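Q: Could you fold this chain for me?
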Amino acid sequence: MKYILNKKYWAPIALLGIMFFSTLFTSCDNNDSEGGTITISKVFLEDVNSTVPDREVTFARLGQALRIQGSGFTGLKRVYINGYQTYFNVVFVSDNSMLINVSADTPILEADPSVRNTIRFVNDNNETTFSFEIRSGKPAITNISNTMPNAGETITVSGTGLTEVSKVVFPGNIEVSTGITSDEDGEFFTVPVPNGVSDNGGSLFVQTSNGGVYSPAYFNCKRSIILDFDGRGTHSFWGTPPANGMILATDIESAAIGSGNVSQGKYVPHRPARIASIPAATGRATETWTAGTGVDNWRTQLTPFIPATTPLDKVAFQFDIYVPDAWKDSGYLKICTINNFNAGTWSGGVYNYIPWLVDGKSVAFQTTGWITITIPLNKFYQWSKEPFTFEAVLAYREVATYQNFGIWFENADVKMKDVLGTASEVEFASKPTSVKVYTDNWRIVSLDTPVYNDFAN
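A: Sure. Below is the predicted structure, expressed as structure tokens.
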């Protein structure tokens, strides 16, 4: 039987063949010369996706391709980056230029100090060491323990590549360079919060040994508060006292609580002191609301800094929470964008916050101080199935009869089929609970994150 190869496959196969045969030649086969003096003049970053595909640089990151310019590369036998012998292909070596990739296995912080941030070139007769900074992948920030702390408190910033943090710039251009502690693996750092941080909020800028990085623009964004029980926003309630499930003005507390990050003025207990325990199978156990129709105006308050056209995965509801004792097995907070829902709801403009449910298991949730919870609005069930913009949420609220935003404590059964949106027989039956859950500083924030560029345009 005769097989005919389609012409459209010729080029890829030819390229694969070239790549295969080129790998037969390793750095140890560069035998054109025993090698003379090696000099290095410049290093260029090779990036075909950049507007400057061949850019002179003073540092590189793991995995990046470099073009090294100099002389005496003929006969080159070995290259060590941060002390790590790095493969190079002699096909891409001439006497005055060579290409090499910085291996992902190159040590950074763990490199011996004598060889860190160096590239060493070796032939049979000579070697030279060139000082050149090697960084890990770009740093990233994934969480800030408290995004609206008191001045003087310490926060923890988590992420990747956050090594050797040298400074943090807070909104208002307030710079901190002392008192910072960095995790050796770059997974977090701690920093004290200075005085004078702008109430308009914004991003943290963090300088690390891996370069700079911004947080989302949600730090200290007090102009985005919809209710803080201290004058920003209006707490509303109705019914005839004691109105058992309604959180009244008399239920709001103000004693200082929490360690590390402490309470700020007044806050809401979702099981007020007058309720000793919440029975099992109690849907709308307690509820807390903003004033709603005629008072709340998200479009006027929020769109000056969160445009209505903002994708909904870039907008979030954020609040601070304190849970002094272990919370598990039962109870959750139902977060409602309007006041038009029934107990047990897993659809519409709501989100059920269940912090003790982790990977399908009940795991105790507890905090030593106040921490910040961030829930992107595209996690709310009404907007979770397809892309929406902030306009969808604004319009949803504006046509509602009752435009109150609220949180109620629900002590109902939790079924994994509701949580996952897929078939599941797993269920957590509700139990009586006397858990203490406090929240404060309800706010709508931007998740927009400025992009840090390693190089000026």
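A (continued): Residues 26 and 89 are 6 Å apart (CA to CA).
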